[in-house]
Amino acid sequence: MRCVIARFPFDLTRSGVLESMKGIKPEHASGESVIIGRRTYPVKQVGQVITRQDRRDFSAGEVLRAMTQLGFTCRGPVPAPAPTRVLTPLQQASAMLGAPVAA
């Protein structure tokens, strides 16, 4: 498949990507990621390996689009957990007595 990443055309195939990523240890994926084989790689790491370009030269969206078209499973960023509300001792005591907790 022909795709453009960082204004350069690349002819990528699924088997070619699998071969390129063979033996590459995945970095910690905190943002967008691609599942290649049994491993989850950060999108920027995959883009760097398959294009041999610096990570600053391309966007994660360009690589995600190419990997999706090749049939790889892509995941978006992991959502941050919702902040939990901490009650003050007075609010906690009021709640234990059955009074509504003020916002």
Report the uncertain regions: none
Tell me the major beta sheet: 3 strands, antiparallel
Average pLDDT reading: 88
- Total number of beta strands: 5
Q: Measured on Cα atoms, how large is the radius of gyration?
A: 22 Å
Strand content: 15-25%
What features would you describe in this structure?
- The chain is α+β, with helices and mostly antiparallel strands and 103 residues long.
- It is built from 4 helices and 5 strands.
- The protein has helices spanning 14-21, 43-51, 60-69, 89-96; strands at 2-5, 8-11, 33-36, 39-42, 73-75.
- The strands form 2 sheets. A 3-stranded antiparallel β-sheet has the order 4-3-5. The chain has a two-stranded antiparallel sheet with strand order 1-2.
- The chain is elongated.
- The protein starts with a strand and ends in a 7-residue tail after the last helix.
- The model has no long low-confidence stretch (mean pLDDT 88).
